[in-house]
Amino acid sequence: MGKLINYLGRLLGERVDILIMPRLGGSVKFKVRVLTLVLLAALWLLVTLAGLLFFIRAYDYNITKADNELMRVKMKLIGDELERGRKYLELTRTTDTQMRQMLGMPGGKFINLPKGWEAAKEKEDERARELLGKDLKDLTAEEFEKYVDSIEEHAKTRLASFQEIAWYFANRREGLNSTPSIRPSSARISSGFGYRLDPFGQRTTKRHNGIDFAGKPDSPIFVTADGVVRHAGWVPSYGQAILVDHGFGYSTLYAHTTGVRVKAGDVVKRGDKIATMGSSGRSTGTHLHYEVWKDGQAVNPRNYFK
Asked: What is the three-class DSSP state of 290?
């Protein structure tokens, strides 16, 4: 190892002659040490590598700068499209409200909302309106992402709203046909809806869930809305009774009848004759006991007469 170091020391310390001979003029001769040549070569190599590295970095910088400029242009185009989309969504909100008002939908808002949902939705809409009110160039990356999410959420909300409007419009006519709206009998009303004295002589009041029509035996009884017969037959106290399900939360009951003309499963239309007036069951005389039920609650049938 020592010999190698001594050899390299002698080699680097030796002088070499460098002769420059121009084509015109005299020659020039230099004497330099080998160590000097090695240092000059190393310096040239370092300068060359530094220049190459600088060129590569400058090239990457220019490419990155061009990419960033292109990205800014694309983001501006995307931002303009999103802003245009947001404005169209605001127009659909107005159209949505107008359509609901034209169709008579309650309050211009969703129907049958779960409790508390509407208030939470209003807070979310308020936050979205605050964000959408900002200029796009002022948004951070996180805010821009929220901006896009807000537009998507608004679009989903409008789609759901228009689907509800379409459903409401398609079922409105059917719903009207399914709402009790005529008298089941032309006979006079002998007993109203609500509490009354017991008709069988007891000195107590009792809730009367329908109204009574007193008429002649075998007088016709008509169904008051479109529906499906769920029961037609004997019911304790009610005698021969018919229960019709009209959908949309409505059902009607016709009791103390005779001459029943329908059976369970039959589809009936408003005005169809379904039975005749009798005195079956627990009754004080020939009459029809008629009830209207809405969403599981007995309601006053008088409110549904035209």
From this structure: strand
Q: At what angle do helices 141-177 and 34-103 cross, to 10 degrees?
A: 20
Q: Fill in the DSSP letter of residue 220.
A: E
Instruction: Give the other-Cβ count within 10 Å of 135's Cβ.
Output: 8
Local confidence pLDDT in tens for the 306 residues of the chain: 677 776 666 666 677 667 667 776 667 766 777 677 777 778 888 888 888 888 888 777 777 777 777 777 776 776 677 777 777 777 777 777 777 777 766 544 444 444 454 565 566 666 666 665 666 556 667 777 777 777 777 777 777 777 777 767 766 666 778 889 999 999 999 888 887 666 655 655 678 889 999 999 999 999 999 989 989 999 888 899 999 998 888 899 999 999 999 998 899 999 999 999 999 988 888 999 999 998 888 899 999 886
Distance CA 74, CA 68 (A): 10
Q: Which of 118, 119, 143 is nearest to 130 (CA)?
A: 143
Q: Return the bridge partners of 14, or none.
A: none
With 0-12 / 13-18 / 19 or more C-beta atoms within 10 angstroms meaning exposed / middle / buried, residue 116 is exposed
Residues 6+ apart with CB under 8 A from 295: 249
Residue position matching structure tokens 């990155």: 64
